[in-house]
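quick one, 736 residues, struct below
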Amino acid sequence: MDLVPALEEPLKKVLGPPTAKVMAEHLGLHTVGDLLHHYPRRYEERGQLTHLADLPMDEHVTVVAMVADARLHSFASAKAPRGKGQRLEVTITDGSGRLQLVFFGNGVHKPHKELLPGTRAMFAGKVSVFNRRLQLAHPAYELLRGDGEETVETWAGALIPIYPATAKLESWKIGKAVQTVLPSAQEAVDPLPETLRAGRGLATLPEALLKIHRPHTKADIADARTRLKWDEAFVLQVALARRRHADAQLPAVPRRPSPDGLLAAFDDRLPFTLTEGQQKVSQEIFDDLATDHPMHRLLQGEVGSGKTLVALRAMLAVVDAGGQAAMLAPTEVLAQQHHRSVVEMMGELAEGGMLGGAEHATKVVLLTGSMGTAARRQALLDLVTGEAGIVIGTHALIEDKVQFHDLGLVVVDEQHRFGVEQRDALRGKGKQPPHLLVMTATPIPRTVAMTVFGDLETSVLDQLPAGRSPIASHVVPAADKPHFLARAWERVREEVHNGHQAYVVCPRIGDDADEPADPKKAGKSAEDEAEKRPPLAVLDVADQLAKGPLRDLRIEVLYGRMHPDDKDAVMRRFAAGETDVLVATTVIEVGVNVPNATAMVIMDADRFGVSQLHQLRGRVGRGSAPGLCLLVTEMPEAAPARQRLNAVASTLDGFELSRIDLEQRREGDVLGQAQSGARTSLRVLAVIEDEEVIAEARREAVEVVAADPELKELPALRTALDALLDDEREQYLEKG
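---
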């Protein structure tokens, strides 16, 4: 609902070019509608002041407080050698704590006159530390004066909206701009169908906009937020429901396995029985493959839950039915790994057209960018003739030259690493739209799946196969307790001594071409010595370990920028047990399968996200011996990063961790590919907290779209949808 037609007036016409320019550049706001949908982050009551005790370091904050005292000091400096320098120190309080403000030079005169003890004001600035005390240097401020007519009570009880602001534009300036455009809210066109709005007792859109920007009571804020959450959830779910409806109209070739074909022969070969979960999910997939419109299914399962086996059985079912299946992997290492494991699992069933191949056998080919010309030519030929039933590859599969005989199924591994365009290009290679199975080992909470992958049906594998071992995880506080780190290296030696292998993971490679350390991370407060130094690097750590605590062990390095052949050679040696310790970047995060690797040490673990740590940890404990994961950090105990690591160490439940991860990162732009939480298309809807609203909005959206797929009867909803799905996002959903 970024825009509604009456609100398309550019801000520069209404607020003037300078303010409009700052709003566009720093807040992404261009029109009156954008500004009306820039909601307050929270509200201050003048009488109940912000907790100064809880101020976050290094952030722009707005606080409402009272001046306790103000003192002007003179001092000598290079610019004012005769002691003519002036510094104004103002202490403000809110009852919970005190905060110092400082003003220098010519900037002291105005605040010295205005900020007298007992004055109440709003102050905005960046929190920093000086002499171990929090302070705001040169904050902007706005005096809070009660108008003559206001009683002290109404003045103190008024709710002051605090807006997401920037250094260039304080919250109260945004508030004044909002007041200027607020009358336009009356013209906002309501996207919710009247029956839905009235049936749920929701406020109208103009009323909600008025209440969120100028609430009289806390109940006003609650009403407005409830209504605006519904807008966001419902319009998004309508977009996804229309997408599913359109997919259901597409034709596809039904693919049913023959009772005594390749799939049956493969199942007979399996040395174990499938878990109950694998059987259930396989059945869901086979039911989808048998229909005459394309399957769109998301298969999510914990690391090691056997997703690859489920995907392989789906591919074999399609080959049985005369089609071909393609599996798209994000990296060459992973494509090669999948190819190897599929060929191993299939045995002679993968030797189609060869001597010794089984009766129902097919050919399994690998296609990657670094293959030699002859091998590549042969692979392309096998695909176009239909000789190869299964192809596994990187995005080399998407190139124009690649032609299929009859592409029936596309399996995408680790969906979040592929652009939508890439998936779309591969799907376009079928004579009719092929079936699509998307796999991810990143557990996605149900509401996020409904929101981000709402156009896909979801299957979840949550059982681990029998014989998998538990993984013990521990945080190693290297700065507080250096002997813990020494013990960590002893544990690695013990694992190797017992015939096992270990990974050491670092955030960086460490050659000259390496990315510079993030300047935003530098120059912080106490916990920040750990943040200031560049992240630990593979090449440095490998060198230190080889000369120090792990000398005489066989150590190798692996990182993304190595030549693909070298990477593959390193992985083969590690898989064959010829290397004791592999020091690597996160290239090993996905799909690398070495059952003999039992220990993992993650250096600077606080530099990784929760889901990423969980993914990495899933690389150990893949055999019968228990796994060990040590999370090394220099962060002090109270730091949020340490809390995050403690959460990872305390549970192996990926769904629980993904909730924690999401709560910390915010949702990101759930429609765009951005996953950063910066500018989100969800302004009031929180994917985790608002599970009920999302589920109900989905039900309502399905009904609306079933009755009127083109939304002919609901022009206002159609308008809101067009605004939400600007061209780029429309394509994102089209191709999703």
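Confidence is low (pLDDT under 50) at residues 148-153, 512-526, 666-680, 730-736.
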